Amino acid sequence: AQKVTQAQTEISVVEKEDVTLDCVYETRDTTYYLFWYKQPPSGELVFLIRRNSFDEQNEISGRYSWNFQKSTSSFNFTITASQVVDSAVYFCALSENRDDKIIFGKGTRLHILP
Amino acid sequence: DAGVIQSPRHEVTEMGQEVTLRCKPISGHDYLFWYRQTMMRGLELLIYFNNNVPIDDSGMPEDRFSAKMPNASFSTLKIQPSEPRDSAVYFCASSLVHDSNQPQHFGDGTRLSIL
Predict the structure, then answer these.
(1) Are B93 and A100 within 8 A, CB to CB?
(2) CA distance B79 to A105
(3) Tens-digit pLDDT profile for residues A51-104
(4) Which candidate from A44, A96, A99 shows the least CB-CB separation from B109?
(5) Are B14 and B114 in contact (CB under 8 A)?
(6) Which of B33, B45, B56, B88 is exposed most, by the fewest CB atoms within 10 A?
């Protein structure tokens, strides 16, 4: 069973629009960690955020915000006032406490159109 | 601080040849991971090491793939013989100590093309 689902394969929005990237995860552990990574066109993977399962407080970092809801097993990522430089593939990932591995979703390719 | 360093950045070779990808993790990181990224399968974990010891190699596709970590500052992923379906971007990542709360820091990847 897929443990991290990013149902949106590709999204295109016009610059300055807000956009939300969805992430649904599956785990039996009570302690786990969720991550978002960004992969810009240059190809490198850039760490954005880490959240543990005991902290459901939403987080905001500049134009980025994350909504963690255990009740729906979701960890969604919103970009406010999007910019062309936000164009990238965004990966949601899960790490279970029993394991040292990080399981990545398939990614969402985000196009910000000028 | 230097990040994870991978070499080469690009590799093009003919099928049947041996390919060796190299990785230098961030100094002090105890964990090293090898991933493969393709359009079809996304990011797949191939193998990871803890303190130079392979912990889980269940993601290694087949016997043609092997990975070693002779010391804390160097790891190799070898494909022998290579096949066109091995074409992908291979990433190395490292993380600090035994805590899955720690993010993995990725190298820039090696883009491998097998002709």
Answers:
(1) no
(2) 26
(3) 888 888 888 889 999 999 999 999 999 999 999 999 999 999 998 876 778 889
(4) A44
(5) yes
(6) B56
Asked if A102 has any chain B CB less than 8 Å from its own CB, the reply is: yes
In the Cβ-directed half-sphere of B103, how many Cα atoms lie within 13 Å?
17
- Within 13 Å of residue B69, how many CA atoms lie on the same side as its CB? 22
Name chain A contacts of B100, Cβ cutoff 8 Å. 32-33, 95-97, 99-100, 102
Q: Is A7 on the interface with B (CB under 8 A)?
A: no
Asked if A97 and A80 count as a contact pair (C-beta separation under 8 A), the reply is no
Question: What are the tens digits of pLDDT across the range B52-67?
Answer: 999 999 999 889 999 9
**Smallest CA–CA separation between B103 and chain A, in Å?**
7
Q: Which two tokens stand for residue A71?
A: 């009740």
Cβ within 8 Å, pair B42-A104? yes
Residue B100 to residue A100, Cβ atoms within 8 A:
yes
Count CA atoms within 13 Å of residue B96 on its CB side: 6
